[in-house]
Amino acid sequence: MFGYVKPNHAELLVKEYEFYKAVYCGVCRSLKKCTGTFSNVLHSYDSVFLALVRMLYIPDSQIGREKRRCIAHPIKRKNMLKRNDATDYTAKAFAILTYYKIKDDISDEKLLKKMATGILNPIFASAKNKASMKELADTCREKLNAITELEKKKTASVDEPAKLFGELLGAVFSGELSGDDKLITYTLGFHLGKFIYAADAAEDYDKDRRRGSYNPYVEMYGGAELSDENKSTIKCALLLECKKIESAVNLLPFGRRAIIENIINNIIYLGLPKRIEFLDAKGSEDSAAEEEGKVSK
Amino acid sequence: MSKHTHKDPFEVLGIQRGATDEEVKNAYRALARKYHPDNYDDGNPLKELANEKMQEINTAYDEIQEMRSSNKDAYRGNNTYYQNYSGSNSGSGDPIYAEIRTDINKHRFADAERKLLDIPFASRPAEWHYLMCLVLMSRNNVGDAMRELEVACNMEPANAEYQRAKEMFNTNARGYGSTYYGSASGGSYRRRTSSDEACDCCANLICLDCLCECMGGDLIACC
Predict the structure, then answer these.
(1) How many independent structural domains does chain A possess?
(2) Of A29, A32, B42, B201, whose CA is between 20 and 30 Å from B60?
(3) Pick from A13, A159, A242: which is nearest to B143 by CB?
(4) CA dihedral of residues B131, B136, B139, B141 (deg, nearest 10)
(5) For chain A, which ranges sit under pLDDT 50?
(6) Spatial distance between the Cα atoms of A151 and A130, rounded to a whole number of angstroms
(7) pTM of the model
C-alpha cells in the first residue's frame, strides 16, 4: 500500500519491533507457500499492518514463533512467526493487490507488460484459488476500473476516487469475516484507503502538475502552486480521516494482546501523521530539527 | 457480540482486581474518552458498536463503584453531549439559502445538495461554498468539504461563521492522537507521567545531596 502504513520505529519497544519483524517474515513465508517461491520478492512492510489486524481474529494457539534461516538471510537465523491463517490471508490478499498495481503501472510498455504478466499470472492464479479470494479479486478489479474511469474524466474531487479505493481496502481488510468483525475491519480499511489515496495524491501534487497527469488536488486547486494555507487545509482533512480510522481501531478486539495493540496504535497515531509531514509549512522545519537534536543527545 | 453475556467489570476496564480507586477512575476515563459519542458521528457505521462499548464500560464502572460502595455517579451523565455543526442559523438572508439551511438542519442532505447544484456556477457566493461544505461533510467527503470551506473563507475572510467552522475542524484534527499520549492508564502509551516526575524529584534530591557532600555539607543525612 505504497509505504503509508508503517510504524514509527523509534517509538516502539524492542520486543514490539522484534514482533513486527517476525510478522513480516511470517507473511513472507506464507507468500512463498501460497503463491510460489519467487513471489516474496514483491513483499513489502505494508502488509504487516493487515496481518496484525487479522491476527486479532485467530486463536492464541495459532500464534507461535520459531528461529529459521531464509533466502534473504542465509547466515543468521531469524526470529519469525509461524504461518497461520492471518498471514496466509494477508499473503494472498497482497498478491492480488500487487498484481493489479503492477499491471496498472506498466499499462503502456508492451514488452515489459508481457514479461511482467508472464511472471505474475501464476502468482495471481494461485492467490485466488479459493472462492472468497476470487470474490476479492473481482472487487479489486471492479474498484480499480472505476477509479480509472474517474481519472479519465478528470474528476475535481478527491473523495470520489478515494472512496472507491477505500471500498477496495475495506474489502481486503474484512474478507472472510462476518458480523461485527466484518463491520469494524471494513470501516478501518475504508478510511485507511481514503487516507492513503488522498495522501498519495497530495504528495504527487507537484510532480503531476508538471507532467500534466491526473491528480484530484490539481483539478481542485486549478493547477496553481499550493500555498501553506492550502497545505494545512489538506492536512486537516487527512487528520480528520485519521480520526475515523481511530474510531474503528478503538473497537478492534485486542483483549490481552498488548504487543499487537501497541504496534497498531503506533502505526495509526505516529506512523500515519509522520507520513503526511510533507504538508507542514516550511517554517516549522526548526521544530523538526530540534526534535532530532533531542534524539541524538 | 457481548450484549448477552455478563463480563467481569475489571476485565472490561482492563485493570487488576486490586486496582486503586484512582486507577479505576483513570481507566474508566480513558475508555470513556475512546468510545465517546463525539468520536462517532451520525454517519459512522460503528456508532452503535461504540455505544454498546460505552454502556459496557458504564455498567462495569458502576458495578465496581457499587462493590466498593463509594460515590457512584460522579463520572457519568456526560454522554448526551453531542454538537451538530450545521446548527447555527445566521446567513445572508437570501431565501433559497435559508431554505437550504433548514434542509441541512433537518438532515435532508440530498435535497440541500440538489438545490445547491441548481444554482448556476457563476452566481455562487461564499455561503454556497460553506453550505456545500456541510453537505459534503454529511457524506464524509472530508477532503472536498475542506476545500469548499477554504474557498468560502477566502471569499469572505471576515465572516465569523465560516471562520468558526474552520477553527472547529482544525481543533478537531489537532486533537488527533491526544488520547494516545494523554492518558497515563489503560495500557495506553508510554509518555512521561506524573509518577515519572516523582522519580525525577528523588533523583534531583540525591544529586543535590552529592553536590552538598562534595562541598563538605550534607543534605540528606542518611546517605
Answers:
(1) 1
(2) B42
(3) A159
(4) -150
(5) 285-297
(6) 31
(7) 0.75
Whether B217 has a pLDDT exceeding 80, the answer reads no
A258 interface with B at CB cutoff 8 Å: yes
A86: domain range? Answer: 9-282
Please tell me the predicted confidence (pLDDT) of residue B15.
83
pLDDT digits (tens, 9 = 90+) for A38-66: 666 777 888 899 999 999 999 988 888 88
Strand partners, B75: none
pLDDT tens-digit readout, B17-33: 777 888 888 889 888 88
Q: Indicate which CATH number applies to the domain containing A156.
A: 1.10.600.10
Tell me: ipTM over 0.90: no
Specify the pLDDT at position A241.
92
Q: Which residue, among A8, A167, A269, A276, would best test binding to B if mutated, counting the most B CBs under 10 Å from its CB? A: A269
The pLDDT, as a whole number, for residue A143 is 92
Q: Which three cell numbers stand for residue A97?
A: 493487490
Domain membership flag for residue A296: no
Residue A290 domain-assigned (yes or no):
no
Q: Which chain B residues are Cβ-neighbours of A247 within 8 angstroms?
A: 39-40, 44, 46, 50
Using the beta-carbon criterion (under 8 Å), do B142 and A159 form an inter-chain contact? yes
Q: Is there a domain that residue A76 lies in? A: yes
Chain A hits for B180, Cβ within 8 Å:
265, 269
Ramachandran assignment for B56, one of left (phi > 0), alpha (psi -120 to 50 degrees), beta (any other)? alpha
Beta-carbon contacts of B43 under 8 Å, excluding residues fewer than 6 positions away, are B138, B139, B140
